[in-house]
């Protein structure tokens, strides 16, 4: 009997919680997390040479009615470096997040950058591409160049 009482209590509690997420019109209420809009949340660098860092810029927009702050922008590994402004973004304002990739390791890559804003809200940005191995030495001397110099 005690177990039945617990089950009924949990059921009623879950109904009360789900009822709070719907307004009287029957549609879901907007979440506060939606106030940060990322114009493009991914970037593909394509093929990039090994050892040459590559960067891209993500633009974010505050679609809310009050200023908000990017609390932290954290890369998934040390090969990716985000740079952003710590100043508040006014309502309707924009900010830029510059993400750099060091292109040290050869091969395809996919890295994520997590944007934390308004204390506990998050968005995820993604960069990808393929790093190709560059030649170890420069091109060999071209003997034809010396021949052309003698003609002039």
Radius of gyration: 26 Å
How much helix is in the residues? Answer: 10-25%
Termini separation (Å)? Answer: 106 Å
Order of helices and strands: HEEEEEEEEH
Q: Which word captures the global form? A: elongated
* CATH fold-type name of the domain at 27-132: Immunoglobulin-like
The parts where pLDDT drops under 50 for at least 5 residues are: 9-31
Rounded mean pLDDT score: 80
Structural class: alpha+beta
Q: What does this molecule look like?
A:
Strand 7 (107-117) and strand 8 (121-132) form a beta hairpin. This protein has 2 helices and 8 strands; from the N terminus they run αββββββββα. 18% of the residues lie in helices and 41% in strands. The chain has 152 residues and is of the alpha+beta class.
Record keyword descriptors for this entry:
single chain, 152 residues, alpha+beta, Immunoglobulin-like, 4-stranded mixed sheet, 8 strands, elongated
Write a brief structural summary.
The protein has 152 residues and is an alpha+beta fold. It is 18% helix and 41% strand. It has a 4-stranded antiparallel β-sheet with strand order 1-3-6-5, with no helix packed on it.
What is this structure's SSE topology?
Blueprint: H1 2-20, E1 36-38, E2 42-49, E3 54-62, E4 70-75, E5 80-84, E6 94-101, E7 107-117, E8 121-132, H2 143-151
Parallel strand pairs: 2-8
Antiparallel strand pairs: 1-3, 3-6, 4-7, 5-6, 7-8
